[in-house]
Amino acid sequence: MTPERYKKFRAVLEKRQPDLTVIADHIHKGRNMAAIRRTCDAMGLPRMHAVIPEGFKQKRFAGTTQGTHKWVELVKHRSLESCLEVTKEQGMQLCVADLSAQSVDFREVDFTRPTAILMGAEITGPSAQAKDLADIHFHVPMLGLVESLNVSVACALILAEAIRQRQDIGMLDTPSMSEDEMKRLAFEWGYPKIKRYYQWKKLPYPEIDDKGQLID
Predict the structure, then answer these.
(1) 3-state SS of the chain: helix, strand, coil percent to 5?
(2) Residue 60 shares a structural domain with residue 154
(3) pTM, entire model
(4) How far apart are CA 66 and CA 89, in angstroms?
(5) Residues spanned by the domain of 203
(6) Mean pLDDT of successive 10-residue segments in the chain (216 residues)?
(7) DSSP code of 90?
């Protein structure tokens, strides 16, 4: 890894928002999943979650991610309950995209709080369980005749608003990730082959210096 590449990695990691995430709940189309993951990287999210129950059929599609599967961790869960155990432990509010009686304009949601944004299946939307467990229901207002956007497009608009809110109050000015986490990810991104070796051997990663070089 060159010092220039390490500098780029650091600049990206210092903007990452670990307390903001997306939950893709029963999203069938691999292309949509890939597009959401790409948006997560663009908007500074280090990871997203996917609820994929046993036997659930989802077509794989890698092209749309443009390699962002390397930069955004995808955490898979067999149930919504197991997924929410993780986000609740991190103190995240659950915001569900849903056009219901109590749904508010997505721009009214306080995304500066730790937040998990749940996007439901393409045709049926969020499950009844997700709606019941939601802290907030929100929607993207429509001015045309269609009632909803493509799930990946809607997710992009919502995340852009979330990052705008955070940027406005200076949340992107200082790193949200710990130094240890940034160094770990910089090592994994910069030395993928060495990373796989250390994981295979179940060894702790080697240290890197402030230019991204391995410390012997």
Answers:
(1) 40, 15, 40
(2) yes
(3) 0.89
(4) 31
(5) 1-16+175-216
(6) 93 96 90 93 95 67 59 92 92 91 93 95 81 92 84 94 97 94 94 93 92 88
(7) T
